[in-house]
Amino acid sequence: MKNDKIASVFDHPDYQAEVEYLEFTKVYINMILESSTGNKENFKENIKQAFVDLDYLDSSLSYINILTNAKFLEMAETQLGRLQSILNNPYFARINFQREVDGKEELLYIGKTSLYDRENQLPIIIDWRSPIANVYYDGRLGTVSYEVNEEEREGYLSLKRQYKIEDGMLKDIRDVDLTTHDELLQESLAGKADNRLTEIVSTIQKEQNDVIRASLQHPIIVQGAAGSGKTTIALHRISYFLYIAGENFQPEKLMILAPNRLFIDYISDVLPELGVDKIKQTTFVDYMKACLGEKIKIAPTNDKLLSLVEGAENADNIKWISSYKGSLAFRDLLDKYLKDIEKSTAPSEDFMLEKYRLKKGENLKRLFLKEYKYLPIYNRLDKIKGLLSNHLKTKKKMILTKLEEKYDDALEKALYNMKDASKRKKKVSHLLDQKEQRLETIKAEGKVAVKNYMKMFKPSNIFTLYKELMTSPVKLMDYSSLNESEATQLSTYCTHLFKKKVFELEDLAPLYYLKTKLTGIDDEYKMKSFFIDEAQDYSYFQLFALKEGSGTDLFTIVGDLAQGIHSYRGNNSWEPVLKDIFPSANYHSLRKSYRTTVEIMELANDVLAVMKEDLPRVEPVVRHGPKPIFAQVNPKNTNELVTLLKKNVDELYKQDLNSIAIIGRTEKECKVLANLLGASDVKTQLLDEMMDMKKGYVSIVPSYLSKGLEFDAVIMVALNEKYTNEELDIKLLYVAMTRPMHRLYLYGRAPSDFLLDEVNENHYQVMD
Length: 768
Description:
Blueprint: H1 15-53, H2 59-86, E1 93-99, E2 105-111, E3 115-116, E4 123-127, H3 134-138, E5 142-148, E6 151-166, E7 169-175, H4 183-189, H5 206-212, E8 220-224, H6 230-245, E9 254-258, H7 261-266, H8 270-273, E10 280-283, H9 284-292, H10 303-309, H11 315-325, H12 328-345, E11 351-353, E12 356-359, H13 361-371, H14 379-417, H15 421-454, H16 462-470, H17 473-478, H18 484-499, H19 505-518, E13 529-532, H20 540-550, E14 555-559, H21 575-581, E15 586-590, E16 592-593, H22 598-609, E17 619-620, E18 629-632, H23 638-654, E19 660-664, H24 667-678, E20 684-686, E21 698-702, E22 711-718, H25 727-737, E23 740-748, E24 765-766
Parallel strand pairs: 2-4, 8-14, 8-15, 9-10, 9-13, 13-14, 16-17, 18-23, 18-24, 19-21, 19-22, 20-21, 22-23
Antiparallel strand pairs: 1-2, 1-6, 3-4, 5-6, 6-7, 11-12
Helix pairs in contact: 1-2, 5-6, 9-19, 12-19, 14-15, 19-20, 22-25
C-alpha cells in the first residue's frame, strides 16, 4: 500500500490485522514476563540454598552453583527490564521483505529489542540494530541488499510501514514510499525538548544510519552541524557496537568522554533505553586524573576561555601557549626528552657478585634499549631486576661450587705436600677460614646484589620530570625548534603556574603521555574503545595521547568546528587528525540540522558567515516557526527587564514550551540575571558544569556551557556585554543561537550586541 496519508488510522485497510498483531505481541510479552518473574525467584532460592549448603558440601561445587544461578538471575533481570520497557510500545516499524535466495516474503516488525517465538524461533520483533533492519533505514522500495558477516544478501522490499503506538494503543499507521514525506520525523521534531536526551530509533535518517553502522573495525570522525543529532547518533552507535560485539566485548571497557558533568547528566536517561548503561562515562579531566594516579590540582577548565572572552591583555600569549602544548610539535619535543631519559636510565655497569662478573653492562644496556623496548621505560627496570635475580640464582650455585672445589684442592695439596706439621696445620686453618669467609661473603652479597645494583636507577616522578622540562628555557630549546624568546615565554608562564601548585588542562595530555611511556597506564583504566563528544575542543595532542596510551584506535569522534570555542588549543581542522593521528578513519559530514526551525537556523548561518573561516552553511530540515525576535532593553531599568522576561516565560509556558534557557555571554552576566530574577516568582536555576538540570526551572547558563544542550526556547540576554565580530565571540553566539528547537529571543541594548547589524535584516523581527 502506498498512500501519502490515511485520514484516520481506522480507515487503513490493514488496521484490524495490525491491531490483532499488536495485541498478540503484548500478550506474548506478558506471558514471558510472568515466566521470567518465576524464573527469577527460582534463581534467588537456588542461590540462598547454595549458601546454606556451603558448609556441608564440597565448597567448589557450591560456589559454582552460586555463580551459575547469579548469572542466570542477571540474565532474567535483564530480560525483564528489556521487555517491561517495550510492553506499551513494542515496535515502531514494519518491512515486507522477500529474500532473493528462496523468494519467501517475511513481515518483519522492528523495535528497540528482539523477541522470538519460543516454539518455532520465528521473529515476533526484530532488533533495530540487526543487519536486516538496515533495509528499513537505508533501503528504498524495490531491490535492496544488506550485509551479514561481510556477506551481501539481496531481496525485494515491498513495504515500509511506520507506527505510532502510545500506551499500548495503535494511534497511527503510515506507509512510506519515494513520494511520501517522513511525517513521523516531522512530528518528532515538532515535539518538545526535555532536560534529557532521548533515543531516536524510530526516526533515524539515512545519513545518520550510515554513521551508526559504519565499520566498527576503523575509527570514525563525524563533523556534525549544530542540531544534526551527532551526540544521539554516537550513543546509538555505541548501542549498535555492543549488539554486534555481543559477549565478546565488555561494556566496562568502553568509555564516553563527555565535555562536562552537566552533559553526563543530560545523556543519562537515554543510556538505559539503548541498553548501554554499563559503559563508563566521565570527562577528559577526570579520566586523566584517574590514569595519572595522584591527586593533582587542575585550574578551572574554563578560566582561559573566560580570560579570552573578557579580553585579557595577555590573550595572544594564552593562545600561543595553549596551542603549542596541544600540538604534535610538542609531542615531538617530549619524544626527544624521553629519548634522553631512556638513555640515562639504561644500565651500563657490569653486574658483579664479589669479584665475579655475572652480566656484562653492555649486554644489559642492549636488552634495556632494544629487547625490552616494547615496555615503558621504567617498567624495563623490573624486567632487568627479574633477569638478574634469575641469573644470580643459577650463577651463585655455580660460583659457590667452584669456590668450594678450589679450596678443597688447595687443602688437599697442603695436606699432602707440606712436610712441616706446624706449617701444614697453620695453612689448613687459614684455608678453611678463608673458604668459610669467602663463601659467607658470596652468600651475603648474593642476598643484596640485585638490590644494590638496582639502587643505581632512581626513576623520577613524572610530575617532577615535567616541571623540570617546562621551567627550563635551555631544555625547551634543546628538545625543540623554539627560539630563546618562545622558550622563555613558555617557561615563565609554566613557572608562574607551578608556583601556585596547579596544572592546567593543557598539561594533562603531556603528563598522561609521559606516564604511558615511563610506567604505563593501569589496566583498570585501559579502554578498548572511546566515544568522544565535542571533539572540536580537543587538541591534536590530546587525541594522539589517548590513542597512544590506550593502545587502540577504535574511536568514535564527533564534533563541530563551527562550535569550536576552545580552538585556541589548536584544533581548527579535522585534516591533521585524519592524516597524522587516525589515518585509517572513516570521515562523515552531517550538515542537516534536525533541532531548530528554518527561521532560527537562517539567522545562525548568517552569524557564522561573519567569521572569516569558510564553514559550510547548515541545512535545516524543513520545519518552520516564528522568526527570532530582538527586544531592545535598558540595562539600567532592571524592573522593566524582569517584567519583560517574566512575561516572555509565562507566554512560553502557555504554549507548552516548558524547557527554557536564558543564556548570557559569560558567567558574570548570568549571575546578574539570576540575582535580578531571584526576587520574581520565576523559578530559575543558575547552571554550572557540575550541576544537574532540574525540571520545571528556567535554566540560566553561560553561552560556553550551553554547548550540546537543547531547549524548547532560548532567551539570549546582553546587558553589559556584547558579542563582537572576533572568532571566539561569533562561535559563542552561534552556539547559543542553535540551542532552541522552537523559539529564539534576543534581549540587548542594540541589534549590534548580537551582530544583527551584519546579517540579513529579513531573518529576524523587532519586538514592538
